[in-house]
UniProtKB/TrEMBL annotation:
<dbReference type="InterPro" id="IPR036130">
    <property type="entry name" value="Pyridoxine-5'_phos_synth"/>
</dbReference>
<feature type="binding site">
    <location>
        <begin position="14"/>
        <end position="15"/>
    </location>
    <ligand>
        <name>1-deoxy-D-xylulose 5-phosphate</name>
    </ligand>
</feature>
<comment type="subunit">
    <text>Homooctamer; tetramer of dimers.</text>
</comment>
<comment type="pathway">
    <text>Cofactor biosynthesis; pyridoxine 5'-phosphate biosynthesis; pyridoxine 5'-phosphate from D-erythrose 4-phosphate: step 5/5.</text>
</comment>
<feature type="active site" description="Proton acceptor">
    <location>
        <position position="48"/>
    </location>
</feature>
<feature type="binding site">
    <location>
        <position position="23"/>
    </location>
    <ligand>
        <name>3-amino-2-oxopropyl phosphate</name>
    </ligand>
</feature>
<comment type="similarity">
    <text>Belongs to the PNP synthase family.</text>
</comment>
<keyword id="KW-0664">Pyridoxine biosynthesis</keyword>
<dbReference type="InterPro" id="IPR004569">
    <property type="entry name" value="PyrdxlP_synth_PdxJ"/>
</dbReference>
<feature type="active site" description="Proton acceptor">
    <location>
        <position position="75"/>
    </location>
</feature>
<protein>
    <recommendedName>
        <fullName>Pyridoxine 5'-phosphate synthase</fullName>
        <ecNumber>2.6.99.2</ecNumber>
    </recommendedName>
</protein>
<comment type="function">
    <text>Catalyzes the complicated ring closure reaction between the two acyclic compounds 1-deoxy-D-xylulose-5-phosphate (DXP) and 3-amino-2-oxopropyl phosphate (1-amino-acetone-3-phosphate or AAP) to form pyridoxine 5'-phosphate (PNP) and inorganic phosphate.</text>
</comment>
<feature type="binding site">
    <location>
        <begin position="218"/>
        <end position="219"/>
    </location>
    <ligand>
        <name>3-amino-2-oxopropyl phosphate</name>
    </ligand>
</feature>
<dbReference type="GO" id="GO:0033856">
    <property type="term" value="F:pyridoxine 5'-phosphate synthase activity"/>
</dbReference>
<keyword id="KW-0963">Cytoplasm</keyword>
<feature type="binding site">
    <location>
        <position position="197"/>
    </location>
    <ligand>
        <name>3-amino-2-oxopropyl phosphate</name>
    </ligand>
</feature>
<feature type="binding site">
    <location>
        <position position="55"/>
    </location>
    <ligand>
        <name>1-deoxy-D-xylulose 5-phosphate</name>
    </ligand>
</feature>
Amino acid sequence: MHTTSNVRLGVNIDHVATVRQARRAKEPDPVAAAILATLGGADGITVHLREDRRHIQDRDLFVLREIVTTRLNLEMSVADEIVAIALKVRPDEATLVPERRQELTTEGGLDVIAHESAVRAVVDRLKETGISVSLFIDPEPAQIEAACRVGAEAVELQTASYSEARTANAQIAELEKLRQAAHRAAEQGLHVHMGHGLNYSNVIPIVQIPEVEELNIGHSIVSRAVLVGMERAVREMKDILLRYRQAIM
Ligand SMILES: CC(=O)[C@@H](O)[C@H](O)COP(=O)(O)O
Ligand SMILES: NCC(=O)COP(=O)(O)O
C-alpha cells in the first residue's frame, strides 16, 4: 500500500486558457501560469485537452511538455485523435476521463466497466509509450476492480459528489465513500489520486485520507489567482495540504 507524508499538488490550469479563449487572444498564457504555479510549489501541472478545444489548445500542450519540469498530467478522453496526440506529447501521466460536448465540466467518473475493452486498449498503448496511466472514476468498488483489470497504475477518485453535496450529512456520507474507496484501491496496489471541485476549505478532510498521494485542483486555485496572483494562490493551497497532512502523520 502506498502512503506518503507529502501529498502532491497538481495544479489544473485549464481555466487560464478559458479566459484567453473568451477573446481568442494570446493572453493569459497557460504556459506562464504553469511557471508561476511551479514557483508557488505545485508538484505538477494538469491540463485537459478537450475534444472541442474549449480551453487548452494543442500548442499549449506541446509547449508545456517542453517547460514543465515537475510532472505533466494530461486529462483526456479515449478518442483516437486525442490518444494520438498524447502518444506524441508523452506526458508523464495520462488520466482518462469521460467527456461530453454539452457538459460545463466533467460529470462523474469514467465507466470503466461499460467500456472495458476500449479503455484497456488505450491504457496498453499509453503504457507502452512510457506514460503512467490513471483513471478518473467514481469511488465505487466495482469501478476500482475494473481499473485494476485494465492495468491502470492509479485511480483519481472523483470528488464532485463530495464537493457538490447539498447538506452536511450528504457531504459526510460522500467523504466516507471516498475514504473506503481509497483504502480499497490502495489495498489493490493502485496509487490514489483525488480531484474535482476541491477548494481551500473542503480539501482539508480529503488531504487527511492516508492513502491519498495526489490531488488535482484547478478552478478554485485559478479563481483565487485572478485576485491574488498564481504563485500566492498555489502556495496557500500547498500550505494547507502540508499542514493538515502532517497532522495525521
Ligand atoms: C476530470 C476532471 O475532474 C476535471 O478536471 C476536468 O478536466 C474538468 O474539465 P474542465 O477543466 O473543462 O472543467
Ligand atoms: N481532475 C480534477 C482537476 O484536474 C481539477 O478539477 P477542478 O478543481 O477544476 O474542479
